[in-house]
Amino acid sequence: MIKVIDKEEHSERNKSRFINSMIGACVSTAFLHLLLAIFYYFIDVPEMLIYAVLSFFLFLAWGYLFKIKWLKTPFALGSINAVAGIILANYFIGEESNFNIYFIVLLTALFLYPDWKASHRLFYMIILSFAYFIVYYIFLDFKAIYPINSQILQSIGMLNSFSTAAIMVVILLFLNSSILKMQTDLENKNKALKYKADELDDSLNKEKELGQLKSTFVSTASHQFRTPLAVIQANVQLLEMFNASGKKIEPEKYKKVSGRITEEIAKMTGLMDDVLLLGKITAEKVQYDPEDIALVEFCEKLANEFNDLKTDGSHLNFVIKGEPYNVALDPKLLTHSLSNLISNAFKYSVGKKNPDLTIHFKPNEIVVSIKDYGIGIPEDELPKLFQPFFRAKNVTEIKGTGLGLSIAKDYIEVNKGQIAVKSTLGEGSCFEIIFKTNIF
C-alpha cells in the first residue's frame, strides 16, 4: 500500500512540475507573439501580424488549460500552433528568419513530462521530426512571399534565437521553482514524519516501561506481600491456639500479637499506597497546585516534625545559605518528596553522624540538599537508583519497597524541579534538588 501511495505521489509531483513549466512557457510565448505582432506591423506583413495576435490569445488559453490540469489537449494544440507559426514564417518571411529554432522548445517540452506513454512519446517525436524535415527541405531554397531586407531578416533571426533561449530559461526557472517547492514540501513532510516517529518511539518506550513495571511489580509485590502475610497468618494461628487452649491469656500477649498484625497490615497498606501513587504518576494524573511558599519556614517545620519523632537522640541539622525568598511550589508534592529523602537519610545512617537539610538561595535557583553520612550507594547502581522497585545490593537487610525514590523524583519533576545524587560507598549520600526561580 505504501509503495502504491509513493508512486502516486511521485506521479503527482512530476505532473505539477510539468504544469508549472508549461504555464511559464505558454505565458512567455504569448508575450513573444505580442512583440512579434508589433514587429510584423512595422515590416508590413499582415498575415503574420494576424497570426501573432491570434497566437497571443491562444497561448494564454493553452496556459489556462494547463493551469486547470488539462495536459494532453493544450500540449497538442500548442505544438500545432507553434508548428503552424514556423511554417507561416518560412512561407511569408523566409527560412533565414530562423523560426525553425522553436522546434527545440517543442522537443524540450516533450521530455519535461516523463509520464507520457512510450507510444505517445514516440508518435509525437515522429510527427515533430517529420514536420521539421518537411519545413527544412521545402523552404530551403524557397523565396519568401514578402521580400524582407537582409538586415531585418538577420535581426529577426537574432530575435528568434534570443527568444528561444529566453523561453528555455523561463521553463527552467518555473521547473526549478516547482522543484524547490516540492523539496520544501518534502522536507516539511519529513519533519512531520520524524515528529510522529518520535511520538511513536515515546509511546513505545512508555509501553515498554509500563510492561517492565508490571512485570517488576508482580515479582516485587509477591515478595513484599509474602513476608507480612506470613507474619499475619502466624499470629492469627497463635490467637486461635490461645482460644483453643481454654486458658486465661494475659492481655499483654494479646496486645503483642495484635500489634504485630497491625504493623504488618500497615506495611501492606503503605506499599499499596505507593503503588497507587506510582500508577497516578505513570498515567500523568498527579495534581499540581503551586503556591507562594516561604521555603525556610516550610522546611523548618518539616525538620522539627522529624526531630520530634526521633527517640534515639538523632536529629536533622537545618542549614540556610544566601538571602531567603519565596518560591511557587506545590506544598503537598514538596512535602512528600522531602519527607521521603529525609526518612531515607535517617534510615540508612543509623548510628552515624546526623544528616543535614540545607537550603541554598542563589540568584537564579534554589538548591535543597539532604545529606547523610551513612552506608552510601555503589557507584555502578547510581544510574538505576530512581527506577521503580530498585534497591541497591547493600540495603537488602534494611526494609523498603524501592518505590520511595522513584515517586520522590517524579513529584519533584512535576514541581518543575530536578534531582541529582552524589554518593560514596561507606561515606554517605547527598541528594540535591534544584528549583529555578523563574518557574513561571
Description:
With 440 residues, the chain is an alpha+beta fold. The protein has three domains: 2-195, no CATH class; 213-282, Helix Hairpins (Orthogonal Bundle), CATH 1.10.287; 291-436, Heat Shock Protein 90 (2-Layer Sandwich), CATH 3.30.565. 65% of the residues lie in helices and 9% in strands. The protein has helices at residues 2-43, 46-67, 72-92, 103-112, 118-138, 150-245, 251-282, 295-309, 331-347, 404-414, and strands spanning 291-293, 317-321, 327-329, 356-361, 365-371, 417-424, 428-436. The strands form two sheets. Strands 2-4-5-7-6 form a five-stranded mixed β-sheet, with helices on one face. Strands 1-3 form a two-stranded antiparallel sheet. Helix 1 (2-43) packs antiparallel against helix 2 (46-67) and helix 1 runs antiparallel to helix 6. The longest helix has 96 residues, at 150-245.
Rounded to the nearest angstrom, the distance between the terminal CA atoms is 48 Å
* Number of DSSP strand runs: 7
Q: Give Rg in angstroms.
A: 44 Å
Residues in helix, %: 55-70%
Strand order of the largest sheet: 2-4-5-7-6
| Secondary structure tally, helices | 10
Task: Please summarize the sheet with the most strands.
Answer: 5 strands, mixed
The ordered string of helix (H) and strand (E) elements is HHHHHHHEHEEHEEHEE
Q: What is the total domain count?
A: 3
Low-confidence segments: 1-5
Q: Calculate the mean pLDDT score and round it.
A: 79
Question: DSSP strand (E) fraction?
Answer: 5-15%
| Helix-strand category | alpha+beta
What's the overall geometry? rod-shaped
